[in-house]
Design brief:
This protein is mainly alpha-helical. It has seven helices and three strands, in the order H-H-H-H-E-H-H-E-E-H. The chain has a three-stranded antiparallel sheet with strand order 1-3-2. Strand 2 and strand 3 form a beta hairpin.
Length: 135
């Protein structure tokens, strides 16, 4: 996946904001493949911590030199995790001299939040009956 924001096939920017695909209709194969790449990038504790450190940083960006000491991992390993987050479209970066500064791509996290959000006003499913049981 290239360094671009998450696009949910079949949804325009307008419908993505109001009609998240995951909870309103079954995903098609292309949607599932695209979303799986993003969730796979988020499926590692180191990458989740890196994303959190970048997203929560005052000023909106952080130097890789400030990220690496927070982990008991080599610099190449941290760079690999950051590369995977970039490929998933969750972060972006800019080189300034010898250092690279990372920042969150809020459009991607906003889209993920929208995809996972239950449409407003919709009742919660009845959880009293076992799944698959006839009523």
């Amino acid at each position: 996946m290239s360094n671009q924001e998450l696009v949910v096939p079949g949804q325009s920017d307008e419908t993505a904001a109001c009609c998240p695909g995951l909870l309103t209709a079954p995903l098609d194969e292309d949607q599932a493949v695209e979303l799986a790449k993003v969730f796979k990038a988020l499926g590692d504790p180191v990458r989740l911590r890196l994303l959190s450190m970048i997203a929560s940083r005052a000023g909106g960006e952080v130097c890789v030199c400030d990220l690496t000491p927070a982990f008991d991992l080599s610099q190449p390993t941290i760079s690999h995790h950051l590369k995977l987050l970039r490929q998933a479209g969750l972060i972006d970066c800019e080189r300034r001299g010898t250092w690279v500064y990372y920042r969150l791509v809020p459009e991607t996290t906003d889209r993920l939040a929208g995809i996972l959000t239950r449409p407003a006003g919709e009742p919660l499913p009845d959880r009293t009956a076992p799944a698959g049981a006839a009523s």
